[in-house]
């Protein structure tokens, strides 16, 4: 008697949202692909795209919670499907039949990853090079400073601050 063992553990990101279908009996079946980087490859961009199949409650979990880009762990077994196509050519397809799935990043980690890839456009500002304070002389936008009114301030006796000339200093055209 020989001993055999078939167990696969993968960590990767979904390439698209899972597709859910039903068996003839009405049981849910979810299929999706994981992008798994090769760790020991001379090519830094080497990635394997692995087909995953989940049944029953695992399929419902995949349908409800897994989305494109999510980092997950899939534990299951390797299956090789063999068939003959319409042209009488023998075909094979490898896939993992999942029996366990876990999230590998928190919601906070996911949000940080998403927002770190977002380009932020900052409007250019012109600095007065003659001023040692690097005070921003103007901002390249379409707002007009005359549209805004500053509130009236009184002298703050506690700290000795005087805001009487603030309006004049900020909006002067000098």
Automatic annotation (TrEMBL):
Q: Which UniProt keywords apply?
A: DNA-binding
Q: Which SUPFAM superfamilies match?
A: Nucleic acid-binding proteins
| GO cellular component labels | nucleoid
GO biological process terms, alphabetically, are: DNA replication
UniProt keyword annotation of DNA-binding present: yes
Q: Name one GO molecular function term.
A: single-stranded DNA binding
Coiled coil (UniProt feature):
none
Record's keyword annotation contains Mitochondrion = no
User: What InterPro entries does the entry give?
Assistant: NA-bd_OB-fold, Primosome_PriB/ssb, ssDNA-bd
Subunit structure, interactors included: Homotetramer.
Q: What is this protein called?
A: Single-stranded DNA-binding protein
Question: Gene symbol?
Answer: ssb
């Amino acid at each position: 008697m020989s001993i055999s063992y078939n167990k696969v553990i993968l960590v990767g990101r979904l390439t698209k949202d899972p597709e859910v279908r039903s068996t003839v009996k009405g049981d849910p079946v979810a299929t999706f692909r994981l992008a798994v980087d090769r760790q020991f490859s001379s090519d830094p961009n080497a990635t394997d795209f692995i087909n995953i199949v989940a049944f029953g409650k695992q399929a419902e979990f995949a349908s409800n919670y897994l989305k494109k880009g999510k980092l997950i762990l899939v534990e299951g077994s390797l299956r090789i499907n063999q068939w003959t196509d319409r042209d009488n050519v023998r075909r094979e397809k490898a896939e993992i039949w999942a029996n366990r799935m876990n999230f590998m990043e928190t919601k906070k980690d996911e949000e940080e990853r998403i927002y770190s890839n977002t380009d932020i456009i900052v409007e250019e500002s012109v600095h007065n090079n003659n001023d040692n304070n690097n005070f921003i002389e103007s901002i390249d936008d379409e707002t007009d400073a005359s549209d805004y009114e500053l509130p009236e301030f009184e002298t703050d006796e506690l700290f000795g601050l005087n805001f009487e000339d603030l309006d004049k200093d900020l909006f002067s055209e000098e």
